[in-house]
Structures are given as C-alpha cells and as structure tokens.
Amino acid sequence: MLPIPAVKSSVSTRHFLSGGQMGAFISGHDWSTTSLDPVGEWPDRLTFLVDVMLASKVPMFLLWGPDRIFIYNDAYIPVLGQKHPWALGRGFFEIWPEVRDQIQPVIDQAYAGQSSYFEDKAVVLHRRGSPEQTYFTFSYSPVHDASGQVAGALCTLQETTSKVQAEHRLELLLTLTDRLRGLTDPLDVINMAAEMLGQHLGVSRVGYGDVDETARYFSTPRNWTDGTVQHHTGTHDLTAFGPEIHSALQQGVPLIVRDAEADLRTSSPGSLAAFANLETRAVVTVSLIKQGRMVAALYVHSREPREWPDAEVRLIQDVAERTWDAVERARAETALRRRESQLRLAIDAGRMAAWTHDAGTDTIITTPELNRLLGYPPEAQIDVTELRSHYYPGDRDRLTAAAMAAIERGENFFEVEYRFYRLDGALRWFLMRAEMDLDRDRRPTRTVGVILDITERKIAEEDLREREEELRTALDAGSLAIFDVDHIAGVIKSSPRLNALYGYPANHRLTVEDIYARFHPDDAEQTRGEFRRLREDASVHQFDWTLRLLLPDGSDRWVNGRGEYIRDEAGRVLRSRGVVMDVTQHRQAEEANARLAAIVASSPDAIMSFDAAGKRIATWNKGAEALFGYIEAEAVGQPVNLLVPPDPVTGAKVKSGAFDQTIAQGNIRFEAKRRRKDGTLLDVSVLATRMTDAAGRVIGAAAIFRDITERKRWEEHQRLLINELNHRVKNTLATVQSVTSQTLRNSRTMEEAQKGVEQRLIALSRAHNILTRENWEGASLTDIVMGAVVPYRHEGENRFQVSGKDVRLFPQMALALAMALHELATNAVKYGALSNETGEVRITWTVNPGADGPHLHLVWAERGGPPVVAPTRRGFGTRLIERSLAQELQGKVQLAFEPAGLVCTLDAPVQRP
To answer: What are the residue boundaries of the PAS domain, all occurrences included (predicted)?
Structure first.
C-alpha cells in the first residue's frame, strides 16, 4: 500500500502545469466525459498522487475509481506509442484490450488491497498498429481514499524489452555457435541456422544462399518454413525486386520491408508479383560483403505485415555472419576431406609395386614396396627361382601365355591376373601390367612392370557373383521379376520374365504405356489414380500394390509389386524399382476363403473347428453363438468337450470321443445331446470332418451342429400317439364289441337293437371327436358334458342346467363318462325327466381334495318327470353306468331312483393328462 499524506489542493485548472507535458494535458483535459470531477475538485489524495507521479522520471500510471480511469506521466508516453495522448482519461482495458487476460487479475488484486511485483513479464502490445512482443518489470500498489477504502492503483514500471531481447539474442547466438561447431556439411549448417532463427523470430520462411560473381543471381539449396508457406529453393534473380533494393543489397545495406504493398520500393507490379510468388508481405534480407563483393545473403520472410525492431535486424545480421563463417569452415573442411581422400586413394594406388626382369641373366630388380607385397623384408634380394615356386599351380603358365599372346599380336604390352602365395603362406590375387623390350627375333630381353594386389576386389567380385546367384535363385523360386523405371526419361529396364508377366514377348521393349494397356478395364481408372497418388505423395518411399491385368487371351492375372521410390529434394519421383510377382492363385484362394468365411459366418447352423495339436476350439461362428449361448471370445481356446454334458451320476466332465473318431475316420455323422452355456440340454445332429493342410498333414476337425430338439420332441410325440392310438383303438373296439353285444342281447327287436347300437356309437364318436381335437392328450369335462346333452337340447327350452368349474380328463375317463352321460340322457328321454314337457336335468360337479389326489364329484339329478319307480331288473345301460363306469374310473357310482327323479352320483380320482 502506498501511504498518502493529507494535502489540500487549490481549485485551479492550471494546477499541474509544472508536471511537464502530461501536467498540461491533465489540467486541460475535459474530465466531464469521465466519472472524475474537474481537476480543481479532485480529492486531496488523488491530487497528491498525480503530483508525485508527474514529478517522477520513472514511467508510472494511475488507475482511479471503479471505472479505473487511466492517468500517466511523461515517462510513460513512449510505452503508449501511437495511443498517446488519446489514452488519457480512458478505461485501462479500453486502451490495452490485448492484455486483459494477463493483467486484469493483477489489477483486481490491487483493488483488493494487495501489492504485486513482476520482473521481465512478456506482454504483446498493439501500440504501433501491429502486435509487438514486449517485456516489462512493474509493480502495482493499492491507493486508499480518506475513508481507508481502496480508490485506485498506482503502477510503476520499466520496459525491459531491449534487455530481454539482448539476452535472448545472446543465448540464441551462443546456442547456434555451439550447434554449428559440430556440423561438417554446409547444407546441415544452413538448415540448422535457418531453423533456429525462424523459430526464434516466429516467421514464415528463412533461407541462406550464395550470390554469383555478378551479384545478380542468388542460389539457395534449402530453406526452412513454418509450414504456412511453400519452400522456394533454386536460383533467383535479385533484380526482380527492383534496382533500388538490388543496389542496396550490393552495398551491404539490409533490406527491411514491413509491408510490401505499402513500401514505395516494392509497390511496382513486378516487385509485388515477386513478393506474391514468395507468399511474403514483410522481409529482412541481409547481404554479406566479403572483399568488396556481395557473396551471400540471409533472408527472413513473413507472410503477414510485420514490424522489424532494430534488435531483430541486428540478430539477423549476427546469424548471417555466423552462418557464413560456419558454411565456409564446413566447405573448407569438406574440401580438405576430399583432398585427403584423393590422397589416400593415390597412396593406395601407389601400392602398385614396380619391378624389372633381365631375361639374359634371369634376375629381378625389386622395390621395397614389391618386397612388402610379396611378404619379403623391404631390402631383401629375391631369387627368381625361389619366387617362381610361390605361384599358384598353373597360374605362371597363364602369365607366360599372356606375354606370348601379346608378342603374337605384334604388341609388347600385356596384362594378366594371377594367384600367388606370399612368404607367410597367404594366397593373394595380383594384377600384373608389364611392357617388354624385344630383340630382332621378338624375344623378350627385358621386362618392366608393376604389380597391384587385387585380392579384396576378387573377393568382392566372388561375393557379388554369389549374391547374384542367390538373388537369381530366389527370383526363380519366387517367380519374381525385377523392374527399374526412370520416371524422368520414361524408360523401363525390363526382363523376359517381366514381359511374360504382362503378356508380352520376351524380346519386347516394355514401356509404361504397355503396362497401363494391360490394366483390367474395370480397374484401369482407379489403378492409374492410385499410382498417381503414390507418386505425388512425397512421404511415400516404399510401395506395395496389387492390381488385376487382362491378358491378350482374355484371362485375368493378379500381380503384386513391392519396391521403393527414389525422390529428389522436392519430393519428385526420379526412379522406382522393385519386384513383381504373379499372385493370381493366392488371390483366388483369398477370394475362395472369403466366400467360405462369409458362408460360415452367415450360416444359421453352428459351425466350428478344432485344432489337432491342442484339442481345443479354434473357430466359432454366429450360428454357434446363437445355438449354444457362448460368444466367440468365450468359446475359442476351450477344450473340444466344452459342449459335452457332464456325467449325470458323478458330475465329472466327460471326454469327447467324437473328435478322436473324426480324426481317425475322416468324417462321421451322429446325433447326441449337448449342453448350452445356461446348462440346458438340446438334441443336435453333428457332421464332423477331418481337416488337413496342403501337405496332407492333419491339422484338426470341422463340425456342423444342427438343433434337432424340436424334431426329437415330435418324434417322441408321434411315438406316444401311435402307442396311444393302438391302445385306444383296442379299447374302442372292445367298447364297441361290448356295447353291440349288450344292446343286441337286451333288445326285443332288431329295430330296437339297431337304434340302440347307433345311438351308443354316435355318443362314442362325439367323445372321440373331442379327444381327436386335443390330440388324445385329454379332454375338457365341460366339452364332454355339453357333447352328451346337445342332441336333447332345443331352442326355447332350458331343460338342462350345467354348472361346475372346467377340468381336464384323461382320455379313458373322458370316453367312459361320455358313454355314461349318453345312457343317462337316453334313459331320461325314454322314462325320466325328458319324457314329458316339463321335466329338467341338473348336472353339477366339483373337484375336491382327496388322500390320493383331487377327486371329481359329479351329480346327474332329474326333476319334474313322471314318478320314478325302481326297476325290477338292471338293463345294459344301468349296468354300464354302475359297473363299467366305476371300473373304468376306479371310483364309485351310485344310482338313486327317487320318486322326484333319478339321481346319479359319481366320485372318482382325477388323473390329469
């Protein structure tokens, strides 16, 4: 907090005239447009604080009131730049909106009563029309009013942009010097310098290059960009930027253009076109003058207008000098290395040892180098006879033959390669070149020559032959054809095998268009487009493509090409080379496998395979997931007996014999029970087949599982129905026989017998109809009752009252009850309640619990008929009801011939179907 003494101010508009330029501005400012009163009415603390600020030589400004009105001193004017004096009396962030995110928390902290201090804080200001990176050391102090409340904030600051930039510049130059010191390739030096400078300045492009002796043409082999502009390498004409700029560069004056469109030196159509081609609006170019001549230049480009502070220009000049020094050093070192290499080659070549042979004395004069070459001490005198004993067997004859052949040709010079055992026993290859002095008879008198050790070359040649043979063998084995395409000249180095792959004669001179002509018409446009994309993508160096050809005989051929693109620095393809092979069979196999996989995947049947080695599930399709409930991830890798139910007694996992049987027999069919994931069992039919690889080795088994649970259920149902039908037919025939026999025996006439048999058979038929509808699995009691009484019910009458909760009866009980109800109804029509016009029958039943299960209690009660008298004898109907029904139902039947009407009571166990 800044302490402020209580000071009285005089009310005068000239109060701050002693405060320099800003004192006059503050005194004369129209403060009515702000929240402040006229200067003469300002609070004492504000007046005192402004007096202190105006008297200071340190840049200061004051923020006052809730609107944070901006008041500053003369020392702060340079900081404002073009915003002075407009900034006076405005809100802080109206003046500096670009720093709101950075500075507002600091100001809020001051207004909260807390001071702050920052050193060399980086701030981007727009004080001269464009963004400018600046650095400040500053502090904010809260200012209190007379009541002790914070009324404003006082900021004291010092711009440290030059200091920080100088430190950054020094750091960059030191780092650059260290990095350049370790580089030996001039291009690496240029790349490093351009990249470091470009990233430091945040520009679009940086490049360095040489200027020719005319100081007109500038050549840059590489440049750096930030990715927003294109690279511009090659040779450029400096005169394209105008004579004024060209002349300045020749004199070593830096070219500084802040905006090419606004700079009079670059506003001509030609200059603007040159800048547009470079995608550049601002540039600094520093020329290097050595021995009075422009020899190189370093340029820095910005695609947007940009201010170039003096510190940046000085940095660019320093980098240019260091780059020059490093490039020249690297070039000198490169030249030195080249000369040293040439010297080493000359020394190596100089190892050719000289010698002279005198044919008359058969002696040899050697040199120390020859002695060392042959394995002798440098100063040793070599005996010719001893020397000749070291030739590889037969090779001295080759040497002599070469000399004689030269003489026969009329020449005295010969050259021959031969093998020689050094004194230490090492076998070496030598190249001898010799010139012979011949006498009149053309016989050698003296021979002078040199010997060169070519052992390493011969070893390399042998290795090369072996590699070529290995390559030839590999190409033959893989049916591979080599290709090498010169994309600049449009020439293909073809071979008979390559020609054959594309359907051309072996001696045909293959061209690019010949290859394009073989592209399958359905794929040609797409294939050409893909090749064009690969060539134009500078990041692609390796390629691997597969395409379809249409051969002259109408057949399709698939070929695969693999190789590399050789590109120049701009990414343009110069050459492509690699191998091509026929993959038609492989492609057809892939398509067949894909079709098979699609069939397997889409099949509703469960299809799976098992590997022979581990006896585990290898594949599992969607049909298997649906049938067995396991998803593929759960099933694959499980044992082959995953689906086999456990032993019902022990619960132990049962081993599957089906897999081993399939492997042994080749294929099997069987039906079995298998267990789903949820534990339920289902019946399946299985077709299992042994699988082998191309060599005939057994690799596993494949199986198709089909759910036959429903079929098994129907088969069992059918079997039961057949058995039931057989049983029912026998029972029915027995019933028919009994009914017929009893009716005939108890009938007085044939007409009566015929009618009785027909009625009883019809009743039996109705019960059969009901059971047939229910597949003989049982019948509804209600249906049986209603079927029995329906022949005796007439419209407009309600002589039958039926009540009771429906219950299912097993077939035997249903038939017996239907026959009994028929007899009761027939008897009622003849003698009972249905024999007059007023009688009625009530049929009721209930199902009651019993010791052996539920019991049916059914009552047939007649009322309103003629008076009932108990019969003197039991007829067939009565016996059928009393004895047969009770026997069939294993229950009790009671007939009561009460005066009011017959009552039949049935009580029998309900055996549910």
So the answer is: 339-410, 467-538, 592-647
